[in-house]
Amino acid sequence: MERSADVTAPDATAPGRGTRLPAPAAPVGLLVAVLLVAANLRATLTGVGTLLPDIERGSGLSSTWGGLLNTLPLLTFAATSPLVARASHRYGTAKLLAGSLAVLACGTVIRSLPSDIALFAGTAVLSAAIACGNVLLPAVIRRHVPGPRIHTVSALYVTVMGLVAAVSSGISVPVAHALPGGWHTGLAWGIVFAVAALPVWLLRTRGDTPAASTGAAPAPTPWRSALAWKVSFFMGLQSFGFYTIIAWLPSILARQGMSSTAAGWMLFYYQVVALTAGLVVPLATRGRPDQRFTAAGASLLVAAGFLLLLVPAVTVVACTLLGLGGGACLVLALGFQSQRAGGPGQAAALAGMAQSIGYLVAATGPLLLGALHDGTGGWTVPLVLLAAVSLAMAAAGHGAGRDRRVPAPEAAPESGTR
């Protein structure tokens, strides 16, 4: 159960408190390095949704197999995330991030090869690499950023991540149609971001001393914390909605008569609105560490957007509500993984738990929606289900938004659980 007392975050400079990055020459250097990693966290994933009709036609995949292709990254995130904190403790954060960027580039190449096996194998490899960045960025921010600014820095990296994702959604189909290779080329172009980020993190490996070399133990996963479970479910339910939109919004709109190119740009519009919302959230919540009603209210906007998506005449309104609510929920979900931790080492453990449980929940989304579409022959039942999931997200967000901390083991009181 969750401990009753809040825990003051430990000094980020204290020895033996988990893996640390080498001290940057200037704060802007660390920020640039973080943003370069953020640019890689969605670029190779979001274009799949817009290319899915071409992929299904070219490879003969059914909607269910198409849903599995979009679910595979989430299953890989869920399996890999619990391992990242311990790997970082053993090898060093910068070394692990640099290695993951190299693996991401290799996985992107494999996925673009003309083979169905390579399509799924490359997706699994690049997703495992992305999981490292997903888990480590909240820990990096928790260690190097003062508490009051965590939400702002989280919003910046979510903005870069979302901007690149939106561009990927918008241009993947035009790239596939304009260049040789078709959809294979459309899947491959995102490698440029991994190539750009890798040298920066290779430079940061200098002096990156693993915490294991100091004899410090890694922070355990906070399975017994009720707050950690709320953060995890909020992460999972918002990811359930987001990845389902990324996977199936173009197909939903195509069923309503929209062209694949126009549907791709509508997905781009949704993500631009989400970016705007993500930038506004830190300003709207500045000085207010209790974010229960912000998280719950944003979730209700998402529920309304899914229901309005049933009405083709108000598609733009539906995508606007989905973007506003979804963008706010994403920033909050990632920010909670830093803000609710009792220290930098605990942040990696909390992020690993939140993203393992969260992506396991999210993984059911694209596959379930694809199966429901095949079974019902339409999108009404799937969209109503998504609205119901968003209501559950409002409840989880109300709990995760409370101004509390998951206590670090060494700082936790001996009694007083609730």
Automatic annotation (TrEMBL):
<feature type="transmembrane region" description="Helical">
    <location>
        <begin position="25"/>
        <end position="45"/>
    </location>
</feature>
<feature type="transmembrane region" description="Helical">
    <location>
        <begin position="262"/>
        <end position="281"/>
    </location>
</feature>
<feature type="transmembrane region" description="Helical">
    <location>
        <begin position="348"/>
        <end position="372"/>
    </location>
</feature>
<dbReference type="InterPro" id="IPR052524">
    <property type="entry name" value="MFS_Cyanate_Porter"/>
</dbReference>
<feature type="region of interest" description="Disordered">
    <location>
        <begin position="1"/>
        <end position="20"/>
    </location>
</feature>
<feature type="transmembrane region" description="Helical">
    <location>
        <begin position="96"/>
        <end position="113"/>
    </location>
</feature>
<feature type="transmembrane region" description="Helical">
    <location>
        <begin position="378"/>
        <end position="396"/>
    </location>
</feature>
<feature type="transmembrane region" description="Helical">
    <location>
        <begin position="119"/>
        <end position="141"/>
    </location>
</feature>
<feature type="transmembrane region" description="Helical">
    <location>
        <begin position="293"/>
        <end position="309"/>
    </location>
</feature>
<feature type="transmembrane region" description="Helical">
    <location>
        <begin position="315"/>
        <end position="336"/>
    </location>
</feature>
<keyword id="KW-0812">Transmembrane</keyword>
<protein>
    <submittedName>
        <fullName>MFS transporter</fullName>
    </submittedName>
</protein>
<keyword id="KW-0472">Membrane</keyword>
<dbReference type="InterPro" id="IPR011701">
    <property type="entry name" value="MFS"/>
</dbReference>
<dbReference type="InterPro" id="IPR036259">
    <property type="entry name" value="MFS_trans_sf"/>
</dbReference>
<dbReference type="Pfam" id="PF07690">
    <property type="entry name" value="MFS_1"/>
</dbReference>
<keyword id="KW-1133">Transmembrane helix</keyword>
<feature type="transmembrane region" description="Helical">
    <location>
        <begin position="182"/>
        <end position="203"/>
    </location>
</feature>
<feature type="transmembrane region" description="Helical">
    <location>
        <begin position="65"/>
        <end position="84"/>
    </location>
</feature>
<feature type="transmembrane region" description="Helical">
    <location>
        <begin position="231"/>
        <end position="250"/>
    </location>
</feature>
<feature type="transmembrane region" description="Helical">
    <location>
        <begin position="153"/>
        <end position="176"/>
    </location>
</feature>
